[in-house]
Specification:
Largest sheet: 8 strands, mixed
Distance between the termini: 22 Å
Strand content: 5-15%
Number of helices: 21
Helix content: 40-55%
Shape: globular
């Protein structure tokens, strides 16, 4: 049995996600697709647009067979911990044979070589990295320069390329490596490969070329959903340069359109089933600024030591936050105000999320890997997955927090408590907007389609 695992947020589910699932099914000859999905808060340090069960329903309606929740501690972490948590979760199922993910290149050999350098950190690479960090660049920018310089010093024969026609030049490969570290999709692709290696996972990596608009692109493209997905999946000669023929818009574009609310979201930017779920969503959509009052309270009541203890924080950053907290207006505005050359907007937003969820740096040492598999939903047509999962999983399988007390240790319950806290925080913000209809995690039934 071939099973593809995908680590995702689906915030919200769009045409590119549907394309990815369908393409991976074909490439891996997969019988089933399992998703490790973020819950009510996501990796960029923000609430999900829609709560996790509605997004689970989207995934199941559009090609997924089973959705597991990626624990909040990892779902809101930096790329390294996010990837390690997701890869470990899928590997622990005991039945996932392939790990699928998108990237700006499908040159797996090149990706694996780059990941090996980042994992092993040769001295020449570390020297270059230290030099760039001293210049005040952010870690992602410093890493891109250091890796490119390290590769430029290697003999050309040591640089691997899967280009069958041998047409790729050394300059092309340096440009490629630099680009690989410039987008979130590529950063995660390399982190997934590092996680596979460090965990000694037998899952086979399956990168596929990302189609459509860029990760941060906010253009709403009007695409014929089913036709574009079908043609993209069956055109094996398609290259990156041709992807504009199928301009799947990004999740960022969809969120931006829904937030601005100046014009209705075109139905064609999402699979029909996902669009119907979004169009009939019974709750307000949530954005980071909806949590501004809670964040402001934390900033007013925390001291420097407490602020420095949260994930993605430091004493220097904590003191800067305290010095500027009197100028706070809202979440996004404070991120813009506080970001610097070496502290990104996303890092600040993740820190703010960690403050609200009380996730500390020490929690990542206490819980280095996921310690349970929590089912959010499944397709009844994929029923054989469940007994296979029960027979092969290396972690407890839970469907409700009610059962957790009998299945999890006290330490493991601490990791689950972050998920429960995230849902309560999400419900609190909805209630502040006049909607108290979202069920807590104890009352919510898993999705069955």
């Amino acid at each position: 049995m071939n099973v593809v695992g995908i680590i995702a947020e689906y915030n919200p589910f769009h045409l590119g996600h549907a394309y990815q699932i369908k393409k991976l099914r074909e490439l891996c000859n997969a019988d089933y697709v399992i998703i490790a999905m973020s819950g009510n808060f996501v990796q960029r340090g923000a609430p999900a647009l829609m709560e996790k069960y509605s997004r689970t329903q989207m995934a199941l309606c559009c090609g997924a067979d089973l959705v597991l929740e990626l624990p909040t501690l990892f779902a809101t972490a930096s790329a390294e911990y996010f990837a390690r948590g997701g890869v470990s979760l899928l590997d622990a199922t005991g039945i996932v044979t392939h790990l699928g993910f998108g990237a700006e290149t499908d040159d797996k050999e090149l990706l694996m070589q780059l990941a090996a350098v980042l994992l092993e950190e040769p001295e020449r690479y570390r020297k270059n990295l230290r030099m760039e960090l001293k210049k005040g660049l952010s870690f992602p920018a410093s890493r891109a320069v250091a890796l490119t310089r390290y590769l430029s010093e290697l003999p050309e024969t040591e640089i691997i390329s899967a280009a069958s026609d041998n047409s790729r030049t050394l300059e092309d490969m340096f440009t490629s490596s630099n680009n690989l570290l410039a987008s979130p999709n590529n950063i995660l692709a390399l982190e997934y490969l590092q996680a596979l290696a460090s965990l000694h996972s037998a899952m086979i990596p399956c990168p596929i070329l990302r189609q459509g608009m860029g990760y941060h692109d906010k253009t709403i493209a009007k695409t014929s959903h089913d036709k574009a997905i079908d043609k993209s999946c069956h055109d094996n000669t398609r290259t990156q340069e041709h992807s504009e023929s199928f301009p799947f818009c990004s999740a960022s574009a969809i969120r931006s359109c829904l937030k601005d609310d100046k014009s209705p979201l075109p139905e064609t930017v999402m699979p029909k089933a996902a669009y119907e779920i979004l169009n009939h969503y019974p709750h307000p959509f949530l954005f980071e600024d909806d949590f501004s009052a809670l964040l402001h309270y934390e900033l007013l009541t925390d001291d420097a030591a407490r602020l420095a203890s949260f994930g993605d924080s430091s004493f220097e950053l904590a003191n800067r936050l305290l010095a500027k907290r009197s100028t706070f207006t809202n979440w996004s505005g404070f991120c813009q105000q506080m970001k610097t050359k070496n502290i990104t907007y996303t890092r600040l937003s993740r820190l703010f999320t960690h403050m609200l969820l009380h996730i500390r740096q020490e929690d990542y040492r206490t819980y280095p890997l996921p310690s349970y598999l929590r089912i959010l939903g499944f397709r009844t047509a994929a029923a054989p997955l469940l007994p296979a999962l029960k027979a092969n999983s290396r972690l407890p399988l839970i469907t409700s927090p009610t059962d957790a007390g009998q299945m999890l240790s006290k330490e493991t319950e601490g990791l689950l408590n972050f998920d429960l806290r995230a849902t309560e925080l999400y419900r609190l913000c909805l209630t502040a907007q006049g909607d108290d209809s979202l069920k807590n995690d104890y009352r919510q039934q898993i999705i069955r389609l």
